[in-house]
# Entry
Amino acid sequence: MVRLLAVSGSLRAASSNASLLRAAERLSLEGMSIQQYLEVGQLPHFDPDLADNPPAIVVALRELIGRTDGILISCPEYARGIPGSFKNALDWLVASHEFPGKPVALFNASPRASHAQAALRLVLETMSANIVEPASITVNLLAKELDEISIAADPQVRQQIVSALEAFKGWIDEQARLR
Ligand SMILES: Cc1cc2nc3c(=O)[nH]c(=O)nc-3n(C[C@H](O)[C@H](O)[C@H](O)COP(=O)(O)O)c2cc1C
# Structure
């Protein structure tokens, strides 16, 4: 079983990025589970003084990441950058031993979000994530307010998501085989 953790960079209830990740959960493949992480907004502000002895919610996030085989991220662009709350979540993971080397599929719900995507790649690479390119997709959900059922039912988007999940699972399975 390939266990994936999905993390949206938006706290908005009707977030297109969160809907995209829930659509991926609906379309998850046989032998794959996708769990949504919903506590980005509850994480305290990152404090380097606490990085080695973090609050329980951060310990739980790190442990969750330790138990997952890969992370699906879908993050919007705010003022040409990464939303502060999502960057805050990443900052808590910088000093962890669970995050480095973790396979990441970068989903993007807006073709316009190029600055945030570039910044996110740089941050994730700095954190030694393994960005899996064939599993990283951009779809156009901007301002469409679609829920996950409509997204998963759209033939083109559905195909993009399924192909990305197949590529991600294939990559993770291959790495496990090589170990
Ligand atoms: C404060 C704020 C700043 C934004 N800045 C940008 C931006 O610089 N570039 C962009 O393409 N979209 C920008 N947007 C639009 C959001 O990226 C867009 O609404 C997106 O759908 C938000 O993601 P969500 O649907 O997952 O909440 C901004 C939105 C907000 C609320």
